[in-house]
Amino acid sequence: MESRITGTTMPVLEIGLEPGETILAEPGELSWMTPTVQLRTTTATAGARGLWGAVTRAIAGGGLFMTEFTAQGGRGAVAFAAKIPGSIEPVQIAPGAGYMVHRHGFLCATQGVQLAIGFQQSLGAGIFGGSGFIMQRVTGAGTAWVELGGEIVSQDLAPGETLLVHPGHVGMFEERVNFDITTIRGITNALFGGDGLFLVRLTGPGRIWLQTLTMPGLAHGLAPYMGKEAAPSQTTTAAVEGGVAGAVLNSLFGNR
Questions:
Q1: I need a surface site. Which of 19, 57, 167, 200 has the fewest CB within 10 A?
Q2: What's the pLDDT at 82?
Q3: Distance (Å, whole) CA 27 – CA 39
Q4: What residues form DSSP beta bridges with 149?
Q5: 39-93, pLDDT tens digit by residue?
Q6: To which H or E segment does residue 227 belong?
Q7: 130: alpha, beta or left, given left = phi > 0 and alpha = psi -120 to 50?
Q8: For position 183, what pLDDT does the model report?
Q9: Which alpha helices (H) appear in 69-186, and where do they start and end?
């Protein structure tokens, strides 16, 4: 299997497959492929055991279904393009060395990689704090490719070193990094500061990747140039994506 990332602002990942090799991706990620690649859409993949495993994957930002791309009858190729300006990062997954990725960050992976929900320690904040607190947990063994928005700032946190981050700017971090939720100090800051009520507290040791562009930020920037019918209000968007039930509905019926 060979992979190549082409482009800078809107990159595309191209993967060459030997006969019998398979790549896993969520439905709707495909950009192009050769005729020798066969598709199989199923819930029983990426580590999901039964319907509940697929449901928890959907809550995390993935879908109930995953698509397997397999080269048959010869070599094949499949490509996945970025959906927003940013970068595509390859990560090596090994047993005991997984990653936590923002809700819409998972792009594709080799067989053996598992995708599930990753809550922070405070379950209540994850449910009521908005979609930024529900993350994808990528474990298993293999290679995964992650899409991050805007410019990427990576940092190695020393043991005990802490960084407070707005939820939308948390792109990815090693699973060994401790993360929980803290509130913004001061009632005036929380209510009128415009930065929300919660921050993510990341504590080392481990590596983190922060993204400068978020999907809500991009939508907010484009809203003045779109018709009212095409630009839902921030209140409506937050209500849909706020809780666990909204995350399931959004993964089933919403556009990514």
A1: 19
A2: 93
A3: 10
A4: 86
A5: 988 775 555 555 555 555 455 455 667 889 999 989 999 999 999 899 999 999 9
A6: none
A7: left
A8: 72
A9: 123-128
d(CA 87, CA 103): 16
**Residue 168 per-residue DSSP state:** G
Task: Dig out the tokens for 202 from the structure.
Answer: 């990341």
Q: Residue holding tokens 């399931």?
A: 248
Q: What are phi and psi of 86, to 5 degrees?
A: 165, -140
pTM of the complete model: 0.75
Two structure tokens written together for 95? 């047993």
Cβ-contact 55, 249 below 8 angstroms: no
Distance CA 193, CA 174 (A): 30
Place of tokens 């474990």: 139
**Domain boundaries, given as residue ranges, for the chain:** 2-224
User: What CATH topology corresponds to 2-224?
Assistant: Double-stranded beta-helix (3.60.160)
